[in-house]
Write a structure and sequence with these properties.
This protein has 2 helices and 12 strands. The chain is mainly beta and 215 residues long. A hairpin with a 2-residue loop joins strand 10 and strand 11. The longest helix has 15 residues.
């Protein structure tokens, strides 16, 4: 029969708070069939399962975004330098790259920047950007910091400026971003022997190059 407007219907379960999924699937269809498909097209009614808490609605439905324990990573980029406008706070990333060429190893990259964007959390967190060779033993560089997000809808940008980075050997490295010891983003960095090391580069200098081709 049709469920009256504004009325609730409780579905009794044999074991409250420990009801299994099969129990729910057996109990719900009868109520849903009568309450949500009213023959006259009347109003919907709320169906409440006795002893069980209602699920939390996503932020887009409830109107607010629930806080997350770990921030969500939006961007992890490497570039030659980052210019920041002191008046507007806008950042310009110059010379994005995903590989480094060197004449011989170990090689030294004079200066580079790592750009990180985070969102989806509230609180203060410890963070670290870490570049490690694919053998998981050789670390090219690491830098630690702190980040604070006051609202889960806020987007926070981090800039790590690194000088004198040493790559001990070629092949693929992994750039990782870690928050409270939890990896949330990673991307490859290819370090290639030979190729274009840049005008005036010394025998141990490294030069970055953009593009997406495999070395």
């Amino acid at each position: 029969r049709e469920c009256p407007r504004g009325r609730e219907r409780s579905i009794p379960l044999e074991r409250e708070r420990t009801a299994s999924i099969p129990t729910l699937t057996e109990a719900l269809p009868a109520a849903l069939g009568s309450a949500l498909t009213s023959p006259s097209g009347g109003a919907y009614c709320l169906i409440r399962v006795a002893g069980l808490r209602p699920p939390t609605l996503p932020g887009s439905i409830a109107g607010t975004m629930p806080p997350l324990e770990t921030p969500l990573g939006l961007s992890l980029l490497m570039c030659d330098t980052i210019i920041e406008d002191k008046h507007t706070g806008k950042k310009t990333l110059v010379g994005l790259f995903d590989r480094v060429h060197a004449r011989r190893f170990p090689c030294i990259h004079p200066f580079m920047c790592v750009y990180v964007s985070l969102t989806g959390a509230r609180g203060r967190f410890s963070c670290e950007v870490l570049c490690r060779h694919q053998d998981n033993h050789t670390v090219a560089f690491s830098a630690k910091g702190q980040v604070e997000l006051r609202d889960p809808r806020q987007v926070v940008d981090l800039v790590f400026r690194l000088g004198g980075v040493t790559f001990a050997k070629p092949e693929m490295y992994w750039l990782n971003f870690v928050v409270d010891d939890v990896p949330i983003m990673m991307r490859p960095l290819f370090v290639v022997e030979g190729g274009n090391t840049g005008k005036g580069a010394g025998p141990q200098d490294a030069a970055p190059e953009g593009g997406a081709k495999q070395p």
